[in-house]
Design goal:
With about 220 residues, the protein is mostly beta strands. Helix content is about 0%, strand content about 55%. It is built from no helices and 15 strands. The chain has a 15-stranded antiparallel sheet that branches. It is globular and about 50 Å long.
Length: about 220
């Protein structure tokens, strides 16, 4: 069992490439689900089942809100918390990531996350301060509150698996589970099941649903 260390660094260097890929260069692939209405919270129990076949870059499973170009004036804004795995390792890292325009933070919270290890992760908007968000892991606050302008009542909840490769020819195999997925819609007071989500997947990622549980998987030749 990985030991969680809730420290949020004052500065960090991104481990993710944020620019689009050039010819012959790798890039991001996604599979996931999003709520059809704006949400103030998203919660899931994330379990890595296969992190041993990451050949290039990283893979991740996360919950969050926001995205590229969704902030005021088209700036990038998001907050996400999840588990990622990197090429050359067989265990994962619990992390939180926040982006607001030029501001960016990536904070590892726990290393050595083993295959089959479960963590209850959440992104939550404050009930008393609209637009202020924080991350939570296993019921413990995992980030300071962060203000994301224009976010209240606008962004859907997301549960996402992603892969980033350094070269277009590379392929990362992985498997993640998202169990007991729940959301709190903007005007609601309590969590509820993610009903009729918008599902998406690309580049060989398979994202499937069974009740309140979801599975993300990718196989490589």
């Amino acid at each position: 069992m990985a030991r969680l260390v809730f420290a949020f660094g004052a500065a960090a260097v991104s481990v993710f490439g944020l620019a689009g890929p050039a010819e012959g260069v790798g890039g991001y692939s996604y599979g996931g689900a999003a709520s059809r209405s704006a949400a103030g919270a998203v919660v899931a129990t994330v379990t890595p089942y296969d992190l041993e076949h990451v050949r290039s870059g990283h893979v991740a499973a996360w919950v969050g809100v926001g995205g590229p170009g969704l902030g005021p004036g088209g700036i990038d804004e998001w907050i996400q918390v999840g588990v990622n795995g990197f090429a050359g390792t067989s265990t994962g890292t619990v992390y939180v990531e926040i982006k607001r325009g030029a501001f960016y933070r990536y904070a590892p919270l726990a290393v050595g996350v083993a295959r089959g290890e479960r963590h209850r992760i959440a992104v939550l908007e404050s009930s008393s301060r609209s637009g202020w968000w924080r991350a939570s892991v296993d019921g413990v606050s995992a980030s300071p509150p962060v203000f994301l302008p224009g976010s209240h009542g606008r962004w859907p909840a997301q549960i996402v698996a992603e892969s980033w490769t350094q070269r277009s020819a590379d392929c990362n195999a992985f498997a993640f589970g998202f169990a007991d997925v729940a959301v709190r819609y903007t005007q609601a007071r309590s969590l509820t099941s993610l009903v009729r989500p918008v599902m998406f997947a690309e580049d060989g990622i398979r994202f499937s649903r069974s009740g309140t549980d979801f599975t993300a998987r990718r196989r490589c030749p």
